[in-house]
Design brief:
2 copies of one chain form a homodimer. By secondary structure, the first copy, chain A, is an alpha/beta fold. Chain A contains 12 helices and 10 strands. Chain A has a single domain, classed as Aldolase class I (TIM Barrel). Chain A is globular, with a radius of gyration of 18 Å. The mean pLDDT of chain A is 96.
């Protein structure tokens, strides 16, 4: 998907919501467990219920891999089911030497038709650039994550820059902002500010709003740019809003709530009317 | 597998060779492509031909994922086929927030019975520690990799330490040396020296010997400790030694050559007689 197409969707839906499909077989409503592919049935219902309010879906690979070969089938069916106008993110956090990264890129971009993959930067340039040779596909590099462990290495200071800033500066030398996003956690507004200064033109994929404690307003105030430049993810708060038979309608309600908050922000910042 | 069991195998076989099962469907001999599961058939033949000379097998997940659900079945069959006395490494380079890392750990340790998983350190403590709550299972943390991109972030200097040294120091605070190994590339002897000083007691998984240019002698001189403390990986040099019907016997020959060089080193350093 091109940046123009993504931004057009954001404006049309007045939303920059990404729904995280962290579908855990132990957490989905009991009545689905009788189905042949409970994970896909759950995702299908969630997609039907939320697609009006979101512009992206992000399955986390760990949840599918935990079901082995069957999980990969559920994932493939899920990605095939997501409408083409919605941006898809393989939250895989891969990264390996050049040839191997290329293989991961083929898997997610060609075999599975994802629009983007999350990538860990530790192994440097040749672990990231193989993801760039696919037209209209994106690499989403971990910069500042929202977990407690982010402090261990990402804030290491060298030459007056944090490691996450260095990651952002370096990767921009390799990738155009039309192919490169960053994961930037929503835990502190001041950090989003630093990240935005390090990458003024790139989209940020922002986890950590809601259950993990970040505020949407901070994210927008520090992170929003002219064409929005933000995808804000919510997983558990939407997909597990209810564990009963009404899970899909509750997911819809929660997604709509977030979409409405986002619409307000998009209007406030003059991106839509 | 315990450290004692691994070291006993190293002494018994006079080898610290790890064979990388980077099995690429486009590179395996043509006559195998008629089989129902060519990847497994290839691995089975390689395992039969090399198990006498190696103490570990390391499938790289990218190669299996590229075949989708079928690839996961090939991987499961491969891991089931490897004899219990041989250490197994899921070269997955995973790493995510706590709950998600736990899911990856369950996948590789419980569902698939691997002895160890490679993990990327960028996300810090809670991305690594979930792998530690499984008895006799190991986490292998990327410290200094053997690819060109290693220079981009791993050598970032802060408080007079490289990032890879900081990674090694920090992770040792969280994990006992009986559960924690490090990936340390074989590209320069002086770097292996620095890494060994940072982690005097841990096993190193060393890629980059052979095709990637590192020397076994350097690795041993700078990295070997009392109970060996080394697993040296070779992938392409062994498994693609020939692309003909004789691939398995050629793999055996190459593995034996490396084993004999390793035996010499183990004798020279007084670890075996």
């Amino acid at each position: 998907m091109t940046r123009e197409a993504l931004v057009a969707e954001i404006k049309r839906k007045k939303s920059f919501l990404c729904v995280g499909l962290d579908t855990d077989i132990t957490k989905i409503p009991e009545h689905l467990l009788e189905k042949e592919d409970p994970i896909f049935e759950f995702n299908k219902a969630i997609i039907d219920a939320t697609q009006e309010y979101c512009v992206a879906y992000k399955p986390n690979l760990a949840f599918y891999e935990s079901q082995g070969a069957k999980g990969w089938q559920s994932l493939q069916k899920t990605i095939d089911y997501i409408p083409d106008n919605i941006f898809t993110i393989a939250d895989a956090k891969r990264g390996d030497i050049g040839n191997t990264s290329k293989m991961y890129a083929k898997t997610f971009f060609e075999n599975m038709s994802f629009d983007s993959v999350t990538v860990a930067p530790y192994m440097g340039e040749d672990s990231i650039t193989p993801f760039l040779s696919f037209e209209n596909k994106w690499v989403i590099v971990l910069a500042l994550t929202s977990n407690a462990g982010a402090k261990d290495f990402q804030f290491t200071v060298s030459e007056e820059k944090h490691l996450f800033e260095k990651v952002m500066h370096k990767t921009q030398e390799w990738c155009s902002p039309d192919q490169l996003m960053f994961v930037v956690g929503a835990t502190r507004g001041s950090d989003i500010d630093i990240a935005r200064q390090a990458a003024p033109q790139n989209f940020f994929l922002v986890p950590g709003v809601g259950k993990q404690g970040g505020s949407l307003e901070d994210v927008v105030n520090y992170g929003m740019i002219d064409d929005c430049g933000l995808l804000v993810n919510s997983s558990r708060g939407i997909i597990y809003a209810s564990s009963d038979e009404n899970f899909a309608s509750m997911a819809s309600t929660k997604a709509k709530e977030l979409q409405q908050q986002m619409a307000e922000q998009l209007i406030k910042h003059g991106i839509v009317r």
